[in-house]
Specification:
InterPro entries: ATP_grasp_subdomain_1 (IPR013815). Keywords: Membrane, Transmembrane, Transmembrane helix. About 35% of the residues lie in helices and about 15% in strands. By secondary structure, it is an alpha+beta fold.
Amino acid sequence: MSKSEADQNPLSLFEFWPGSIFYTPIVLYWIAMGIKYRDLSISTAANPRIETGGLCGESKSSILDMGGSTAQSYIAPYVVFRSGRGSERRALDAMERKGLSFPVVIKPDIGCNGTGVKLVQSREQLEAVLPQFPYDVDMLVQELITYPVEAGLFYIRHPDEPRGRITSITYKEAPILTGDGVSTVEELILRDPRMGLVPQIYLPRLAGKEKNVLAKGEEMPLVFAGNHCKGSVFRDGRADTTEALTTRLDAIMKDIPDFHFGRVDVKAASIEDLRRGENFRIIEINGVGSEATHIWDRRTTLWEAYRAQFSHYRQTFLIGAANRARGWKTSGAFSMLHSWRKQRRLLASYPLND
């Protein structure tokens, strides 16, 4: 497909393929690499201080907690509380201790793809949201960062390298409906060149608002969590990789002990600020299980996507093998399977994200 043809296509060929189809070659690649290194879990040693290296089942807060003073100065303030009976009181007490005020972001401490992420504007909304989560699980409440630019920065540093590098930048945009004073929300979605091809992603979370008519010029964001599979639009931003940004991110990530591979999700005041390595806050840090999400730009070809996936995941095995040689232990295949099953069970119990 030519560039001009790609620019006219609102979706890439594979953008919303079922995961069982798109990820099958990647799973086979992981198995082949595991056989080569005689350990199916060797990639988990890429970030040896994190459960499964951040492949699955890891605690988000435990990764953030490892950051030293440099890293903490860039991480959006957060605090952990437990769900279940009395969770509203525990959340409010935790917010007070941390100096957080509404609006805030509520999300499960173990999660994936933005599942269960909620924007909470008030105490009344908090009271309505918390019962939607399963009983007795750790939850995060985090300051809402209102910077307009959301991005995923992929960082890799081999154990024997003094400096890491950025291998992917992805800009994440929430689709926005603009009312005409006549059409319903559902009609606007179905009429949109992109959203109309995948309405099943957007309509279920509208909670009865699909028949509402937006006033002329009124805007309605459809997604809060910046995740592609939940409806955000991803743009390839690799051209914005700069020496200044790389230096800044490297200093932050080296302040997290033995972190070598993963994606750092940030919000920035502007693209120009991000390029300068200034005025951004870290929302989340993901490990071995994270993707170089620029592949979900609609202009990316299937060949380019798989090349990026195989290239990145190859690094987890190289880094994991290097760390194993230095004395670090891998999680083991059974432990990895246990963590995956735990995460899968929890994800099925969470509410839809905002």
